[in-house]
Amino acid sequence: MKKLQTDSINLPPIWAETQYLTPIAKNIAKNMGLKFIGKLDKHKDMYLALTNMRLELHTAKSSKEGPIFAEFIEGKMGYRRAQGLGRRQLIGRAVGLKKGVAPTILDATPGLGRDGFVLACLGCSVRLVERSVIVAALLQDGLKRAMFDPATRDIINNNISLEIADAKDIMALAKKPEDVVYLDPMYPHRTKSALVKKEMRWLRCVVGGDEDAESLLDCALKYAIKRVVVKRPHPSKPLADRKPNFTINGKKTRFDVYLTKND
């Protein structure tokens, strides 16, 4: 995975929870261009914390809300993987996954990487492109931990790559495009799940509301060889009011599919 570099956004401090981890945290902070603090400052709104388990994003505003982090071994992702991810999953159908056909994917809005991980588990080659150094740091930490677990090691090593960049720049300069571009823009994502509400709220504070989602769709349509897939909540208008070729509906979300003529 590509080494993280700083970008122009305001970066939070990184905080080490134990004395043992202080040198590691200092090194991460230095590489990421973050301010290191050895003791938690309650006046800071948000901060990255390196615990003895993982890298986490915290808020100092409320002690009742737990941290957010990328996780592929346990939790929801671990359960889904253990139960078996059949090729008839909605997201698999949306990207055109068929018997003997595993398209290459550029995930231009990976966030904490759940959808990209599902597609990788289904056999797709997934290129995660995240422009926020903070979100990319959480994502890189989750992927690195998954590399050391026997159940996920091969999936991560063989099917997923991570870059920190603006996906629009990647698509404009790429000489070899992917089959599919996958988009899950922040706005107007709504859900009744308290956990996802918290994650979306926190991530919005870090990366904003994906105000350029419409231009990202335009770039994707020019770039993707076969199709662009946009994940949308029920109910909401199509992104940029652009009617898709077809839609695959789930209970809470849908996948708008735009076929391209670039192949």
Description:
The chain is of the alpha/beta class. It has a single domain, classed as Rossmann fold, CATH 3.40.50. Helices cover 33% and strands 20% of the residues. The strands form 2 sheets. The protein has a 7-stranded mixed beta sheet with strand order 7-6-5-8-9-11-10, sandwiched between helices. Helix 1 links the parallel strand 1 and strand 2 (36-37). The longest helix has 15 residues, at 133-147. The radius of gyration is 18 Å and the shape is globular. 40% of the residues are buried.
Question: What are the SSEs and their pairings?
Answer:
Elements: E1 14-16, H1 22-32, E2 36-37, E3 46-50, E4 55-59, H2 75-83, H3 90-94, E5 104-107, H4 114-121, E6 125-130, H5 133-147, H6 153-159, E7 160-164, H7 167-173, E8 180-183, H8 194-207, H9 213-223, E9 227-233, E10 246-249, E11 253-259
Parallel strand pairs: 1-2, 1-3, 5-6, 5-8, 6-7, 8-9
Antiparallel strand pairs: 3-4, 9-11, 10-11
Helix pairs in contact: 5-6, 7-9
Strand order, main sheet: write it out. 7-6-5-8-9-11-10
What's the total count of β strands?
11
Radius of gyration computed on alpha carbons: 18 Å
Shape call: globular
Helical percentage: 25-40%
Mean pLDDT: 84
CATH superfamily: Vaccinia Virus protein VP39
CATH architecture, by name, is 3-Layer(aba) Sandwich
Report the CATH topology name.
Answer: Rossmann fold
